[in-house]
Amino acid sequence: MAPKTTWKPHTRHGELDTADRDALPESVYAFPKQRKEPLTDASHVRNALARFDQVEDVSDADRQLAFANIKKAAAHYDVEVEEKSWRDLGKRPHTRNTSRTS
After folding, report:
1. Is the backbone of residue 90 left (phi > 0), alpha (psi -120 to 50) or beta?
2. What is d(CA 5, CA 72) in angstroms, rounded to the nearest whole number?
3. Is residue 85's pLDDT more than 60?
4. 93 phi and psi angles, rounded to 5 deg
5. Which neighbouring-strand residues pair with 38?
6. Helix (H) or strand (E) holding 71
7. Which of 47, 66, 76, 102 has the fewest CB atoms below 10 angstroms from its CB?
8. Collapsing DSSP states into helix, strand and coil, what is residue 86?
9. DSSP states of 1-67 as a string?
10. Mean pLDDT, rounded, of the chain
């Protein structure tokens, strides 16, 4: 069962500076508890998808909620999300960290 989303649209869009980001409500973040990955416009939604697998110190439940929030924001901002599960994110070469050595 998918978690209930917490994301709600916010009227402020565009680049966020530190002061603006601190003023945002938790409801605009993909990861609301951690206040990570703000979803204030289409660009931020695409960024959250691209960086999803780089977010640290979150549980699987946090990731599941974040993915649900991202999908809701993506629908609002007309961003296409091909992945069906958060576990599908980060498996493509464009998100893989190629600087790591084995």
Report:
1. left
2. 8
3. yes
4. -55, -30
5. 29
6. helix 60-76
7. 102
8. helix
9. -PPPP-----S--S---HHHHHHS-GGGEEETTTTEEE-SSHHHHHHHHHHGGG--S--HHHHHHHH
10. 82
- Burial letters for 72-100: b for 16+ Cβ neighbours within 10 Å, e otherwise? bbbeebebebebeebeebbeeeeeeeeee
Amino acid at 74: A
- The string of pLDDT tens digits covering residues 24-56 is 899 999 999 999 999 999 999 999 999 999 999
Kindly compute the dihedral angle of the four CA atoms of residues 87, 9, 29, 99, in this order, to the nearest 10 degrees.
Answer: 60
| Gap between the Cα atoms of 55 and 57, Å rounded | 7
Alpha carbon of 10 to those of 5, 14, 28: distances in Å? 15, 11, 7
